[in-house]
Amino acid sequence: QHLLLLSGGLVSVAKSRGLPVVVTLHDYWFQCRTIQLLRPSGTRCSGPAGGWKCAGCVDIKLPYPLRLLFSPLTAPLFVYRTAYLSRQLEMADLITSPSAFVRDRFIDHGLPADRILLSDYGTADDWLAVLNPQPSTRLRFGFIGSVMHHKGIHTLVQAFNLLDSESAELHIFGDPAFSPHYYNQVQTMAVSPGIHFHGRIENDEIGRALGEIDVLIVPPIWYENSPISIHEAQLAGIPVIGSRIGGIPELVEHDRSGLLFAPGDAGDLCRQMQKFLNEPELLGRLRQGIRPPKTMEQDALEYEAVYEQLIARGDS
């Protein structure tokens, strides 16, 4: 599932013991040390270029002039890292990707297209038992997830500040402990009285949180893979407004099951939110366009079949 903080060498260790290996690409760790293809400035990176571009993302604790001199010297280390992890990934018997977008980024990175199986996540549904939609006279937008910069909550808060908040609310569910400085920053930005921060929620409380919103907003600025929060919202019959980035457009069909906006563009996000206020019938229409996600049981059966095929091959 992930080798972060472990070692890419675990793939070759498994292969040396004759064990089949399946690797799932949840993010970009195999080509990006910072995982998300985001530069320190917050701009998106198109790829490591063999590792040569990665030195620019090194956080070196030196005065600015010395940092400019020292940073390029680290480039060979990243070239080695990129080549090493690429070799490890190529050893896998099968590579799976939850989204076509991530699959294509790794094809661009040099992996053969026929080595990567497109297989989206299964979605747990045990929390549906506590899903109890609460009626409200206001339209309730919501965010559920990690409150971190790459998740784009600042864009969401800016957009809601622009909205006619007398007829709408924004509920943010997320743990302040992930990035306390950023959490405080977005709280300070929230000048609208309609914005409410609820802090951390446990997995078994997802149903309660979804029951308190009408529209989920997923506003990342990085190349998201296949956000679990979108799967959960769709399982609950809740439309999504999502950034037009990464794998999100594969899950949210604009004007059919949800709405899309330009990532990082608070004005565009505000316009999409305003549509729900201007068109009362939109919420119901988008609900009807939602396609239920794959269940966890279906996902398990698919992977079980893959594992059995690889074991039967016996040529790892």
Task: Write up what this structure looks like.
The protein has 316 residues and is of the alpha/beta class. It has helices at 10-16, 64-70, 75-91, 100-108, 153-162, 180-189, 206-210, 228-235, 248-251, 266-278, 282-288, 296-313, and strands spanning 22-24, 94-97, 116-118, 139-144, 168-173, 195-199, 215-218, 240-243, 258-261. It contains 12 helices and 9 strands. Helix 8 links the parallel strand 7 (215-218) and strand 8 (240-243). Helix 5 packs across helix 10 (266-278). The longest helix is centred in the C-terminal third of the chain and has 18 residues, at 296-313.
List the helices and strands and how they pair.
Blueprint: H1 10-16, E1 22-24, H2 64-70, H3 75-91, E2 94-97, H4 100-108, E3 116-118, E4 139-144, H5 153-162, E5 168-173, H6 180-189, E6 195-199, H7 206-210, E7 215-218, H8 228-235, E8 240-243, H9 248-251, E9 258-261, H10 266-278, H11 282-288, H12 296-313
Parallel strand pairs: 1-2, 2-3, 4-5, 4-7, 5-6, 7-8, 8-9
Helix pairs in contact: 5-10
Question: What descriptors fit this protein?
Answer:
globular, alpha/beta, 36% helix, single chain, 316 residues, 12% strand
